[in-house]
Amino acid sequence: MALLVLEDSSDPWRGKAFTSSNPPKWLKVEGDDFSSKSEYLWEKNSGEDLNFLKVYHRMLQVGITENLGNEKMEKMVFFFSSCGEESGFDQERWEKDYKEACKGFRNRGYKSVLEIVYWDLRSSN
User: Which among 70, 94, 99, 119 has most CB atoms closer than 10 A?
Assistant: First the structure.
C-alpha cells in the first residue's frame, strides 16, 4: 500500500518515505521493481515509535527549501503500521504535536497543515 501512495505523489515527494526510526529519516525508496522497493522499505524501518512532530518539521523544511507554495505543499501523509497494539501510538502526544506543527506551518505562511493518516494494518477497527 505504501509503495502505491509513494509512486502516486508529485515531486518533491514522489518515491520518498519516512522511516519509523527516531529521529525519522526521509529517504528515496530504492529498487527496480515492487519487490525490491518493498524489501528496501522493510529493511530501513526499525519499528520504533514515530515522532510525528519531527515529521511535520521535516515536511515544512522541504516546503521551504523547495520554495513550495500552498498549492504545491503536500496535503496528506500516510503512515502504515503493522505493529498492532504494540505500536505505542499516543493520542495525547499526537494532539500536542499537531498544535505545535500548526503554529510552525502558519508562521511560514502556509494556510493549512498537512493531515497525517495513521493506518494500523493489524487493527480490525
Answer: 94
45: left (phi over 0), alpha (psi -120 to 50) or beta: beta
At 30-39, the pLDDT tens digits run 888 888 888 8
Domain ranges of the chain: 2-120
> End-to-end alpha-carbon separation of the chain, Å?
18
Three-state SS letters, 29-75: CCCCCHHHHHHHHHHHCCCCCCCHHHHHHHHHHHHHHCCCCCCCCCC
pTM across the whole model: 0.73
Question: Residue 21: which residues within 8 A CB-CB, separation 6 or more?
Answer: 44, 45, 46, 48
> What are 104's three cell numbers?
510552525
* Alpha-carbon dihedral 11, 76, 54, 14, rounded to 10 degrees: -20
Q: Are the C-beta atoms of 17 and 2 separated by less than 8 Å? A: yes
Question: Nearest 5°: phi and psi at 43?
Answer: -70, -30
